[in-house]
Write a structure and sequence with these properties.
Strand content: 25-35%
Shape: globular
Distance between the termini: 24 Å
Mean pLDDT: 88
Order of helices and strands: HEHHEEEHEHEE
Helix content: 25-40%
Oligomer: single chain
Structural class: alpha+beta
């Protein structure tokens, strides 16, 4: 972590909130930079998909300025290995990028997921060319596990065994 990031971390007030009808419109207005459009699936699609999967959890990423991003994670479903969780979707609005919101959102999601008590591992994926995602997840202790047949890099986080 760079010295200025340690300083900023004290002032970042990022929180995760359940997606509700009160914050849905703000989430719908989130935007990515043009060059990022291929890096993240549509947020509205993720919210719709979660309505069919009770083990999917959608969160608004918010700070003092309001909603700044979106995150979705999944608890194990009936066909999944017990203790296997996933962060399926993470995006921070283009106007709020570079301020530590993504990293803090992942840290908060890891803490929330661990409250389930049965966590064995948490995985995520990103396009191999997405250097920002690679750095972000590495900073949160994810370890790259390889490129899958769908062409995405998979990275895994495991809780400290001690």
């Amino acid at each position: 972590m760079r010295p200025y990031q340690r300083f900023l971390r004290k002032w970042i007030t990022t929180n995760l909130h359940v997606v509700t009808k009160e914050n849905f419109a703000n989430i719908a207005e989130l935007e990515l930079h043009e060059h990022q459009q291929d890096h993240a699936p549509a947020t509205m699609y993720a919210i719709a998909e979660a309505s069919f999967h009770p083990n999917y959890h959608c969160r608004a990423i918010a700070d003092k300025d309001g909603v700044v991003g979106f995150l979705m994670y999944a608890a194990p479903g009936a066909d999944d290995e017990p203790g296997d969780y996933a962060i399926y979707h993470l995006m921070v609005d283009r106007r709020f990028q570079g301020r530590g919101h993504g990293r803090r959102a992942v840290e908060l999601a890891l803490a929330e997921i661990q409250k389930h008590g049965d966590v064995q591992r948490i995985w995520t994926s990103y396009l191999p060319g997405n250097a920002v995602a690679k750095e972000l997840y590495a900073a949160c202790s994810f370890i790259e596990a390889g490129v899958e047949e769908d062409g995405e890099m998979y990275a895994v986080w495991s809780p400290d065994p001690y």
